[in-house]
Automatic annotation (TrEMBL):
Transmembrane helix in keyword set: no
A Pfam family: Ribosomal_L18p
GO biological process, alphabetically ordered: translation
Position of the signal peptide: none
Protein name: Large ribosomal subunit protein uL18
Function: This is one of the proteins that bind and probably mediate the attachment of the 5S RNA into the large ribosomal subunit, where it forms part of the central protuberance.
Family indicated by similarity: Belongs to the universal ribosomal protein uL18 family.
Any one of the GO CC terms: cytosolic large ribosomal subunit
Keywords: Ribonucleoprotein, Ribosomal protein, RNA-binding, rRNA-binding
InterPro entries: Ribosomal_L18, Ribosomal_uL18_bac-type, Ribosomal_uL18_bac/plant/anim
Amino acid sequence: MLKKNVIKNRRQRRKRTIRNNILGTPSRPRLTVFRSSKHIYAQVIDDLSGHTLVSASSVEKGLLSGEEMKKIEQARHIGKVLAQRVQEKGIDKIVFDRNGFIYHGRIAAVAEGAREGGLKF
């Protein structure tokens, strides 16, 4: 139990450090990613107004269309869907916030999917 708390505290510290340096604006909002053991969540936030512009997650019904996908494939698909939704709002540039997670695996897959969808970081 102690090791889990240490790992979580390290991630929270990284998250605070990153958030002090990253700011999402209306022209270039912030794409933030959260990863649980089972699902992945991504949202695009305008920090100046404090509103979520677009979101996508593996929990949404119909998004993964009932297919059996591995977690990394799900994350890449979430990134592509999010990119499509953001571009419908007329935004093509974003700032990526890894939310304290290491840029590897599912976090990197969301970023790659968003890039494949046409977003520029």
